[in-house]
Design brief:
Length: about 160
């Protein structure tokens, strides 16, 4: 499969993606735990069907020491016992924040309050921005049919 747009050679994409990548680096430096960031990135990408983001975040998480069991169970986190209460709250917020069209009311107060119980204000802010960020980059990659499978962990410095 060939990408519809080549980000590296398109001037507008190059200028824009420099800022997008900067946002990703800012999030990596936030107080939201790295493991939570990767789990949320995976779950949002699973929901949206973004293969290139699944490729990247699975490999980055594994390189950072995440277990295969947890990576494989992200899609079924509700039935899995391997996630902390905080991670479960983050995954639930990620799902409702991604499926806004399916949840007529958007993110429910119950889901928001569960996340707020586990994350301090700066972490919660980073979590909300991460969910929004992943939805944006998923859509960029899906619309332009960016191919997946060749990503190498560490390819994009944090």
């Amino acid at each position: 499969m060939d990408a519809r747009l080549e980000y590296a050679t398109d001037p507008t994409a190059g200028k824009t993606l420099k800022h997008v990548m900067g946002l990703g680096k800012t999030l990596k430096g936030s107080p939201l735990p790295d493991a939570t960031q990767e789990l949320v990135a995976l779950r949002v990408s699973q929901i949206n069907g973004c293969a290139v983001c699944l490729d990247m975040h699975t490999k980055e998480a594994a390189a950072a020491g995440e277990t295969a069991v947890r990576l494989n169970l992200v899609a079924a986190w509700r039935e899995a016992t391997v996630f902390t209460a905080a991670e479960r709250a983050a995954l639930e917020l990620a799902e409702e924040g991604t499926r806004v069209g399916d949840a007529a009311g958007g993110v429910s107060d119950e889901v928001w309050n569960r996340a707020a119980e586990h994350y301090e204000k700066e972490q919660l802010t980073a979590l909300v921005i991460l969910i929004s960020f992943m939805n944006m980059v998923n859509r960029l990659n899906i619309i332009t049919q960016q191919p997946a499978g060749d990503y190498k962990a560490g390819q994009f410095p944090h």
